Amino acid sequence: MANNIAFSPRGKTVLLTVGATSSEVAVNADAPCNQVHVHNDSNTEVFLRFAPVTGQAAAIPVSGTANYGIPVHNQSTEVFTVPQASISAQATLYVSGIAASGSSHLVYITPGEGLR
Prior knowledge:
The chain has no helices and nine strands. The chain has strands at residues 8-9, 14-18, 23-27, 35-40, 46-51, 70-72, 76-81, 93-99, 105-113.
């Protein structure tokens, strides 16, 4: 469970390459956890969606229309608590992402626990 310690990785970092259409990556952990450390290493804002099942595409909200996508600013790092009990070797988290334009925007995702 999340607490007030520094972020502690609990699995391998995965790379999500984000473009103008939604793409997805699976995240597993070596030890149960319920947070992910996300670094957007691109020059543009990306929108992410976290889900316990595959096929849940991220979308960019537009004026008057809500969508499932949380913005992660360019060259920023965030820690998110994910929408399931835990990530583990048996419980996969699926992360999808989309950018307003362009391709090959790199987003690194590491499962773990703690604050940034």
